[in-house]
Design goal:
Elements (H helix, E strand, L loop, with lengths): L24 H23 L5 E7 L2 E6 L7
Antiparallel strand pairs: 1-2
């Protein structure tokens, strides 16, 4: 059997590679709420007038930035 030389030889994994249990309704709703809250916080932080951004790098025309001083949260 030939072993993979690099991750490129084995990725992407097939869709059925992991066996994932079905989520219950409560768990699904909780994860949806976590996603919504995370997105809202990202938007608030990105558009906050108190945010100061610094460019970390630019790769393939995409600017990677870092919030120098994240706004304080309650």
């Amino acid at each position: 059997m030939r072993l993979p030389v690099s991750a490129r030889d084995v990725l992407p994994l097939p869709r059925d590679y992991f066996e994932c249990p079905e989520l219950g309704n409560d768990e699904e709703e909780r994860l949806i709420q976590v996603a919504r809250t995370s997105c809202q916080r990202l938007i608030e932080t990105t558009y906050s007038p108190n945010s100061e951004w610094s460019t970390v790098s630019v790769k393939n025309g995409v600017r990677i930035s870092k919030n120098v001083q994240p706004p304080l949260r309650e």
